[in-house]
């Protein structure tokens, strides 16, 4: 059988997209998804995303990490599936869709997608790190010169260490640039390596920077290895709400692969 796939990237976080409206994709086949995401033996990607039907919304997003396991929310993948839904003619310039963490509203104009993320109120702030869940779990560390960090090695130690262990977390290393801009490098759980960008990660970083008073702004620019993203939010009492992740989402190529 041949699988028709589409490849997308959002700030260098890359995804295999499959139109699974007929529900024919074998999604319990972890080995197959892992192989499709392999950069030598497959198409190559940080994750695979299925676009499926939804009863009340435009579509449903089902996200798998590159290791083949179904993941928690993927912010850049969420932005890319909006561009994919537009390419398939399912939406025009705005949408509401289902994902693992609930409903997401998004707009798209000229390959720039702005995606509404879940509200965040539970935030653990310690002397050395901040931990929060923006759809996926994120450990955030502020540092001086992140270019020098071995993200794969240091990220893996935190991801597999206490208090996370096997369940794990994503790990973000952050450096402040200006009053409202930060540089971020992320170790992604499920890819088990540094990726060029992580959408739920930069969202977590913007909120962590705000709650620890590293910025007073509520529109934050974030520079990642694969490009630039923006996060905006409102803080109402102890809750971060109306959180939007904005940045480019681009179609790269499409093809057919034997599965
Ligand atoms: N790249 C993603 C994050 C995906 C989730 C993560 N790998 C996990 O399972 O925790 C993003 O853009 O948010």
From TrEMBL:
<dbReference type="GO" id="GO:0005829">
    <property type="term" value="C:cytosol"/>
</dbReference>
<comment type="pathway">
    <text>Amino-acid biosynthesis; L-lysine biosynthesis via DAP pathway; DL-2,6-diaminopimelate from LL-2,6-diaminopimelate: step 1/1.</text>
</comment>
<feature type="binding site">
    <location>
        <position position="13"/>
    </location>
    <ligand>
        <name>substrate</name>
    </ligand>
</feature>
<keyword id="KW-0963">Cytoplasm</keyword>
<feature type="binding site">
    <location>
        <position position="65"/>
    </location>
    <ligand>
        <name>substrate</name>
    </ligand>
</feature>
<dbReference type="Pfam" id="PF01678">
    <property type="entry name" value="DAP_epimerase"/>
</dbReference>
<feature type="binding site">
    <location>
        <begin position="199"/>
        <end position="200"/>
    </location>
    <ligand>
        <name>substrate</name>
    </ligand>
</feature>
<feature type="site" description="Could be important to modulate the pK values of the two catalytic cysteine residues">
    <location>
        <position position="138"/>
    </location>
</feature>
<dbReference type="InterPro" id="IPR001653">
    <property type="entry name" value="DAP_epimerase_DapF"/>
</dbReference>
<feature type="site" description="Could be important to modulate the pK values of the two catalytic cysteine residues">
    <location>
        <position position="188"/>
    </location>
</feature>
<comment type="function">
    <text>Catalyzes the stereoinversion of LL-2,6-diaminopimelate (L,L-DAP) to meso-diaminopimelate (meso-DAP), a precursor of L-lysine and an essential component of the bacterial peptidoglycan.</text>
</comment>
<keyword id="KW-0413">Isomerase</keyword>
<feature type="binding site">
    <location>
        <begin position="75"/>
        <end position="76"/>
    </location>
    <ligand>
        <name>substrate</name>
    </ligand>
</feature>
<feature type="binding site">
    <location>
        <position position="170"/>
    </location>
    <ligand>
        <name>substrate</name>
    </ligand>
</feature>
<comment type="similarity">
    <text>Belongs to the diaminopimelate epimerase family.</text>
</comment>
<protein>
    <recommendedName>
        <fullName>Diaminopimelate epimerase</fullName>
        <ecNumber>5.1.1.7</ecNumber>
    </recommendedName>
</protein>
<feature type="binding site">
    <location>
        <begin position="188"/>
        <end position="189"/>
    </location>
    <ligand>
        <name>substrate</name>
    </ligand>
</feature>
<comment type="subunit">
    <text>Homodimer.</text>
</comment>
<dbReference type="InterPro" id="IPR018510">
    <property type="entry name" value="DAP_epimerase_AS"/>
</dbReference>
<feature type="active site">
    <location>
        <position position="74"/>
    </location>
</feature>
<feature type="active site" description="Proton donor">
    <location>
        <position position="74"/>
    </location>
</feature>
<keyword id="KW-0028">Amino-acid biosynthesis</keyword>
<feature type="active site" description="Proton acceptor">
    <location>
        <position position="198"/>
    </location>
</feature>
<dbReference type="GO" id="GO:0008837">
    <property type="term" value="F:diaminopimelate epimerase activity"/>
</dbReference>
<dbReference type="GO" id="GO:0009089">
    <property type="term" value="P:lysine biosynthetic process via diaminopimelate"/>
</dbReference>
<keyword id="KW-0457">Lysine biosynthesis</keyword>
């Amino acid at each position: 059988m041949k699988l028709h796939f589409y490849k997308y990237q959002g700030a260098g976080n890359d995804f295999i997209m499959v139109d699974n409206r007929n529900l024919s994709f074998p999604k319990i086949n972890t080995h197959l998804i892992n192989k499709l995401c392999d950069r030598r033996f497959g198409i190559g990607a940080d994750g695979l995303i299925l676009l499926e039907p939804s009863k009340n919304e435009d579509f449903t997003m089902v996200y798998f990490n590159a290791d083949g396991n179904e993941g928690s929310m993927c912010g850049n993948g969420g932005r890319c599936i909006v561009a994919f839904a537009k390419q398939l003619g399912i939406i025009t310039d705005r949408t509401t869709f289902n994902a693992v963490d609930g409903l997401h509203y998004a707009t798209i104009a000229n390959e720039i997608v702005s995606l509404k993320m879940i509200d965040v109120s539970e935030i653990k702030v310690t002397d050395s790190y901040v931990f929060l869940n923006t759809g996926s779990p994120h450990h955030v560390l502020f540092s001086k010169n992140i270019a020098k960090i071995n993200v794969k090695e240091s990220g893996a130690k935190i991801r597999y260490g206490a208090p996370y262990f096997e369940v794990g977390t994503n790990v973000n290393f952050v450096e402040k640039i200006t009053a409202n801009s930060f540089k971020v490098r992320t170790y992604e759980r499920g890819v088990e390596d540094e990726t060029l960008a992580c959408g739920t990660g930069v969202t977590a970083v913007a909120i962590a920077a705000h709650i620890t008073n590293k910025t007073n702004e509520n529109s934050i620019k974030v520079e990642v290895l694969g490009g630039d993203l923006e996060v905006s939010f409102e803080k109402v009492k102890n809750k971060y709400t109306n959180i939007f992740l904005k940045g480019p989402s681009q179609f790269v190529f499409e093809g057919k692969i034997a599965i």
